[in-house]
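Recall the central idea of this unit: under ordinary conditions, the amino acid sequence of a chain determines the structure it adopts. In this exercise we apply that idea directly, starting from the sequence alone.
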Amino acid sequence: MNKNKMSKIVLITGSSSGIGEGCARIFASAGYNLILLARREEKLNNLSNELIEKYKIEIQIIQADVRNYEVLHSKINNLDNNWKKIDVLINNAGLARGLEKFQNALLSDWEEMIDTNIKGLLYVSKIIVPLMIERGKGLIINIGSIAGEVTYPSGSVYCGSKSAVKSISEGMSLDLINTGVKVCNIEPGMVETEFSIVRFHGDLERSEVVYKDMEPLLGTDIGEIALHVASLPQRVNIQNIIITPTSQANVYVNKKTA
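Accordingly, the structure predicted from this sequence is:
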């Protein structure tokens, strides 16, 4: 990185698609340099090349799974010291698996959601937070869900994982109160991403029904909200945001159910 370049740095997990990609696009358009972390290296490279060409920013790619602490720790610590001056961490990596009743759900689905949505967030934060504390500033944006506010049938573990994200965000705010590091939990409603495709294990027909006759949020909409939070003065911190498409009121009521 050019040492004379004063652009801020944002690290985004799960940045190869969906909300993570949307955040990358919005922050790149605002002149941020990016650290893009995700499992799918080809998608990261394609996105990186596009954003560098369009916005003339600098980008580092970390191909890693947030469930693997040792790999994360090694790759982040191997970054050049200038790249460790991370201003914003967006803990976006997460997923839902399955939509079966508790008694019929797959144990492997539960483990993947807990390991990614909760432990992955903790792993990345554990590495980045000390770097922010050392500099006396920084912002952590955790991407939760309105499912963390209201539990719906057949979503007990996913909703539980997002409820945990909310509680962890609140706990981080308490523990970091005298460090200059801020924490915000963003809880989106329906966003058109790969979310439903992943939840239904690649069943495209079933996933398309979720957004049919709806106008869901876009990943860039969440990116705009995240950028707004990051653009506020140091004295201001928005701790929790619930954002839904206009056609959705909560997890139960939307344009199709009203």
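Strands lie at 9-13, 33-38, 59-63, 88-91, 138-143, 181-188, 240-243.
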